[in-house]
Structure formats: C-alpha cells, structure tokens
Amino acid sequence: MKKTISIMSEEFENEKTGEKVEGVTIMVDGVFKEFLDIIKHQKPQYENNVSLIQDALMKGLESIKNSV
Is the pTM value of this prediction over 0.85? Predict the structure, then answer.
C-alpha cells in the first residue's frame, strides 16, 4: 500500500473581485485513509475526515508557528 498523501492545487478566481485564490484537494486513500479511520474510531468527536483533517492542519500550523 502506498505511503503518500496525494494533494492537488488549483487556482480559482472570484468573479466579483477578480481575486485569485488557491484551492487544495486532499485525496483520502491507502494508508492515509486507514490512519484517519483508526483515529475516527478512537476519537468519536471526529465525525468525518473533513473535521479531522481541519483539526490536524490547525494544530500542525500552530505547532510550526510556535517552533519558530
């Protein structure tokens, strides 16, 4: 089973403002999916992958910020 996380990036434009923003898509498959499933089973406060990934991302960014 592959041990990578597949992430894609796309650029979008706000039709009203013309602002360009980056959209990021995370593929949940393979070992990554299994890992998320284990965490969701052990910690029922995570109802879905979105809530789990969002929390992990925010905690990870906070950790990075605090380590600088």
Answer: no
